[in-house]
Amino acid sequence: MKILTLAEDDMQILKAIKPFLTTKGQGIIDTFITVMNIFRPSEPQQKINIDALADFLTIMNESFESQKQYTETNETEEQNGALKSQDVENLLNILADKKLSKG
User: Fold this and answer.
1) What is the pLDDT of residues 38-79, one digit of tens each?
2) Which of 38, 64, 70, 89 is the most buried (most CB within 10 A)?
3) Residue 45 to residue 74: CA distance in whole angstroms
4) What is the C-alpha end-to-end distance of the chain, expressed in Å?
5) What DSSP line would sit under the chain, residue for residue?
6) Residues in Cβ contact with 6 at an 8 Å cutoff, skipping those fewer than 6 apart
């Protein structure tokens, strides 16, 4: 299987425009360059660049952990909101019961 890669000049152009991009755009460029480097082995007998593959897996793990943390935070906030709503509803029911028993 033959993998096409970018020329070194093209990679340098991508690296040159990176500072002018948003943080998300810079992350995409980093990931793209890392993926392209996976298929540019440092030694001719290698099929892939092991260091670039390790970098790529690290980037993906960091992204996964970040997304997981974000999701857990949102779920906790939603649960707290639901509990607060339930507390308010219970308080209103107690107040209504007291008002009915006095009246």
Assistant:
1) 877 777 777 878 888 888 888 888 877 777 777 777 767 666
2) 38
3) 48
4) 85
5) -------HHHHHHHHHHGGGS-HHHHHHHHHHHHHHHHTS-SSTT-SS-HHHHHHHHHHHHHHHHHHHHHHHHHHHHHHHHHHHHHHHHHHHHHHHHHHHHH-
6) 14, 36
User: Rounded distance, CA 69 to CA 65, Å?
Assistant: 6
Task: Tell which residue, 65, 14, 21, has the closest CA to residue 35.
Answer: 14
> Cβ(38)–Cβ(48) under 8 Å?
yes
d(CA 56, CA 93): 55
